[in-house]
Amino acid sequence: MYDDELAKERAYVDGLYSRLDELRAEKVEQLGGVRREKSMGTHQNRSERDAFATLYEDRLAQLNAVDDKLVFGRLDLDDGQDRYIGRIGLSSEDQRQLMVDWRAPEAGTFYQATAFERMGVRRRRHLMLQGRTVKAIEDDVLDHTMLVEGEHLQGEGALLAALNSKRTGRMNDIVGTIQSEQDRIIRSPLSGALVVQGGPGTGKTAVALHRAAYLLYTHRERLQAAGVLLVGPSTAFMKYIERVLPSLGETGVVMASVGNLFPGVRATAPETAETAELKGRLAMAQVVANAVANRQRLPREDVRLDVEGTRLILTVRQVRRARDKARATGLPHNEARLTFVKTLLRELTEQLREHIEAAGAGNNADRSYLGEDVRSSRDVRIMLNLCWMPMTPQKLIDDMFSKPEILAAVTPGFTEAERSLLQRAPGAPWSESDVPLLDEAAELLGEMDATGGRAQASAEAQRKRDLANAEKAIANVNQQLEDSGVDGMLTAEQLADYNVVEAAAQTSAERALTDRTWAYGHVVVDEAQELSPMHWRLLVRRCPVKSFTIVGDIAQTSSAAGAISWQQALTPFMGERWTLEELTVNYRTPSQIAEAAVRMANAAGQVVSAPKAVRDGEWEPIVDHVGADGVVAAVVAAMPEETAAVGGGLVAVIAPLALVAETTAALREVYGARIGHGAGSLEQDIVVIDPHEAKGLEFDGVIIMEPVALLAGAGGRVGDLYVAMTRPTRRLRLVTSEPLPEGIVR
Ligand SMILES: Nc1ncnc2c1ncn2[C@@H]1O[C@H](COP(=O)(O)OP(=O)(O)OP(=O)(O)O)[C@@H](O)[C@H]1O
To answer: Which of the 8 DSSP states describes residue 388?
Structure first.
């Protein structure tokens, strides 16, 4: 019986792959066609062909990316029809539906139907493929009249098979085994902010990625031009997840770690918890505003300026009036500078004219050069810059933190201790908590080129005003819709429209990455508990319609600037416009290890959501007590046992930052290139990382070094140790020179 069914499914799946190959060949043919014609015809013809070429290339890339496990399910329905569910939709040449895209409404029952609520489904079949071959099938029979003796197919559950598979250092999609509580979240409406709270391993990252793919599919018209931004905690994490969306047939999502959210800056410098917390406070927005105002200075007294041998006087009053006029434009600093400079140049030119006329010197021809004389005077240029210096965000923030007199001037109300937390050397590398400050500065400074390329500056200023108007209009429309109880997402089209500013041949994603003012249609934030209020302020700027998916676990917060509750973190930015969903099942960590992590957190006085683990493991956590100088050696000694236990899987050593380098070196002496460390080293089978880098990742086996140090480094929170303990899918070992934190051992 089973073999017959298997043979039938194999034949059907062969047919699906043949169709996929046919479509691929078609696209290759079409692409070849437009490429051959490319150099001919008018400019318009060429650009049309370029557009077609891009379209075919995208479709071809999508067809290539979905090859692995193309299909994973089949539904048998009450009406006698069956329906195959796969990564994309496929139809035969005569438009017969062969396979439904998992995101289509009619595929929803594959994830939602239960024996209690069948939703018209008699049987759900999981097809488990290896390469292009169906290796096994497994049925959930929902209609019990179908349960004929001997017909109920057995086999290891598709879910457990996925969970028990060895980790590769890259996240896989879960499209074949999405559980119903996850599916409900993935398919939630687009508008507003959705917060997904869930303990470790509950699939938050998986859900966030599948939701991004779902939203792009379901709201393609609204989202394709504006784009979707996905924000994660670190570059190692972004690398870990980077293959998931392409495997779901989506390549257009813009992905950025928190440190990369400001174009042109890669912020990775470490920083103390106290400094990060202080820089993350909302009060820093005012500090940055003060720093900008500080660059709009008045001279202490009237100044004399030399213009071609003539002495002119610039009064404090004149400068103040010009400053007020420039500020009244409401433009950002660099753009308002034009008004400031023009006003003073005009007044100084007038003064020069009066001097020359009074002296009876010069003729009309000379006078036309007066303006130029004033503009090119060294004294005048220096004075104008001193009073209103054009600035880049980088220079503003760097000066503010490295020049004590500026720092003191812009931080009234701060204590000396707080100022010393902010102080640093000029040109010091950027940290993650600098990113929102740079963004805030860029917002207040505007574009640099305000006097040089005037046409460009005024076009840019016009664009900014248009953008601001559109945002205002959106806010109004949203408010009206909200007041009348209607979903407010009509506005994404408008967004898309005003993003199409310089419609170049770039994709939205490419443009969005380099454009700080890009307004996304939706933003997905992973590990969101780590974000400071200033980070949230930046993210809301990136998505004025406030359409967000926010996933995280409050108990895993380890940043001192991070969230204590979702309410506290989000209310300042979203008001009450957010809803909370919870995920309750832990798919990663075996019960023995998950329970030890919860006991440890509880013993430290922290309440954590304790999701139910779907699997029991083979081992309780293993503990090695060693002398203070024996920790590194103990890790090296334990490694053969650990790698053997996970049989070729991935092993991670999670160490306090201070021990990472020494441990990596000691392990390399034995294992050479098998040892990776730091971001992007997940291809090796043994890695050494610190708790920050471990966020969001998972490994077959984990060795934690000095758990007490992880607790101590986290400023009273259990986040780092809790995160580290919940990374393994199979085995956990702790190597400690101090008494173990309470709760870990039963
Ligand atoms: N429905 C599912 N089917 C198969 N695997 C799943 C499913 N849900 C989650 N998983 C697997 O469970 C593991 C944990 O998922 P994920 O990393 O998304 O959890 P998380 O909630 O983001 O965890 P953390 O907060 O601890 O980083 C991953 O290997 C993921 O593929």
So the answer is: B
* Alpha helices, DSSP H, located in 227-332: 235-241, 244-247, 273-280, 283-293, 316-328
Nearest-atom index, ligand 1, CA of 696: 27
- Provide the 10 A C-beta neighbour count for residue 555: 23
> Do 374 and 307 form a contact (C-beta atoms < 8 A)?
yes
In sequence order, the β-bridge partners of residue 97 are: 91
Q: Is the ipTM of this complex over 0.85?
A: yes
Contact (Cβ atoms closer than 8 angstroms) between residue 374 and residue 349: yes
Is 127 in contact with 134 (CB distance < 8 Å)? yes
- The C-alpha atoms of residue 732 and residue 77 are separated, in whole angstroms, by 44
What's the distance, CA 541 to chain centroid? 14
Contacts of 705 by beta carbon, 8 Å cutoff, 6+ apart:
631, 632, 635, 653, 654, 655, 656, 659, 663, 735, 736
Query: Residues marked as binding?
Result: 198-205
CA–centroid distance, residue 729 to ligand 1 (Å): 10
Distance 206 CA to ligand 1 centre (A): 6
Question: Would you list the DSSP string of 591-605?
Answer: HHHHHHHHHHHHHTT
Q: Using one digit for the tens of pLDDT, what is the confidence trace for 200-251?
A: 999 999 999 999 999 999 998 888 888 899 999 888 888 889 889 988 888 7
d(CA 486, CA 192): 12
For residues 600-611, give the mean pLDDT: 85
Distance 705 CA to ligand 1 centre (A): 24
User: How does strand 97-101 pair with strand 90-91?
Assistant: antiparallel
What's the whole-model pTM score?
0.83
pLDDT of residue 566 exceeding 50, the answer is yes
- Which residue is associated with the tokens 């390469």? 131
Neighbours of 355 (CB within 10 A): 16
- Going from the Cα of 736 to the center of ligand 1, the distance in angstroms, rounded, reads 28
Cβ neighbours of residue 164 under 8 Å, at least 6 residues apart?
615
Distance 176 CA to ligand 1 centre (A): 13
Ligand 1 midpoint to CA 724 (Å): 15
Mutate to test the pocket of ligand 1, among 174, 185, 593, 693 (most ligand atoms within 8 A of CB): 174
Phi then psi for 95, rounded to 5 degrees? 65, 20
Pocket mutation for ligand 1, best pick of 231, 588, 695, 702 (most atoms within 8 Å of C-beta): 588
Which of 204, 693, 697, 732 to probe ligand 1 with, by most ligand atoms within 8 A of CB?
A: 204
Q: Residues lining ligand 1, judged by CB closer than 6 Å?
A: 159, 162-163, 172, 174, 177-179, 182, 198, 200-206, 553, 556, 587-588, 696, 698, 726
Where is the binding site for ATP, in residues? 198-205
